[in-house]
TrEMBL record:
It comes from Thalassorhabdus alkalitolerans. Signal peptide: none annotated. Pfam families: NAD_binding_10 (PF13460). This is SDR family oxidoreductase. PANTHER family: FLAVIN REDUCTASE-RELATED, UPF0659 PROTEIN YMR090W. Residues 7-192 form the NAD(P)-binding domain. The lineage of its organism: Bacteria, Bacillati, Bacillota, Bacilli, Bacillales.
Length: 216
């Protein structure tokens, strides 16, 4: 299975491309913003596609040609303004969903925020609410698309070393999870067709990733 990783140069994305390249049944195409980012992924044996998420749908669709699945891991980051939150976390996600349709790619995995329900927007701090709202509407767009989707809602992201042990369910108490373990969850999700049409929250826990995802 060939996988287009959108947001490959992010912290989750880098872990994910590495894990995909280590997996005999998967291969990655890293979608990156700048040509100078390519050497890292080429050293892993991964293909690259240089596309900015603020480009049009056709540019993203071209990057998705010939792949079997798309993983959206892109994010505007904590140090950008509301404008980038809209352009990347919302519009970039929606354009990628539309690009999947254009390229004929049915499998789509979205890395969302921990809780994107309407109530979460209302309860979020003012500085965080635009991000939650962007993720809310991107998730809604994906649910309405005719794609084989999975939406993953990770808890508080850390750069701690991954343990490979998580808790996963439709509704759990928020907690931390290493970005490395989020990447492992994505790989397990790609390999498990039973995750199609589902969404779930993940935090650090006591079950091996594959077992936790199988029990969703």
């Amino acid at each position: 299975m060939k996988v287009l990783v959108v947001g490959a140069n992010g912290q989750i994305g880098k872990h994910l491309v590495s894990f995909i390249q280590e997996n005999e049944s998967l291969e990655a195409r890293a979608m990156i913003r700048k040509e100078e980012q390519a050497s890292y992924f080429e050293s892993l044996g991964a293909e690259t596609a240089v596309v900015d998420l603020e480009e049009d749908v056709d540019a993203i669709a071209k990057a998705a040609e010939g792949v079997d699945a798309i993983v959206f891991t892109a994010g505007s980051g904590p140090h950008t303004g509301k404008d980038k939150t809209i352009m990347i976390d919302l519009d970039g996600a929606v354009k990628t969903i539309e690009a999947a349709k254009t390229a004929g790619v049915k499998r789509f995995i979205m890395i969302s925020s921990f809780d994107t329900r309407r109530q979460a927007i209302q309860e979020a701090p003012a500085s965080f609410a635009p991000y939650v709202a962007a993720k809310h509407y991107a998730d809604e767009w994906l649910r309405a698309a005719d794609l084989d989707y999975t939406i993953i809602h990770p808890g508080l992201l850390t750069n701690n070393k991954g343990t490979g042990q998580i808790k996963a369910a439709a509704d759990i108490k928020i907690g931390e999870i290493p970005r490395e373990d989020v990447a492992k969850v994505i790989v397990a999700t790609l390999e498990n067709e039973e995750t199609v049409g589902k969404e779930f929250q993940i935090v650090h826990g006591d079950k091996p990733v594959e077992e936790a995802i199988h029990s969703i």
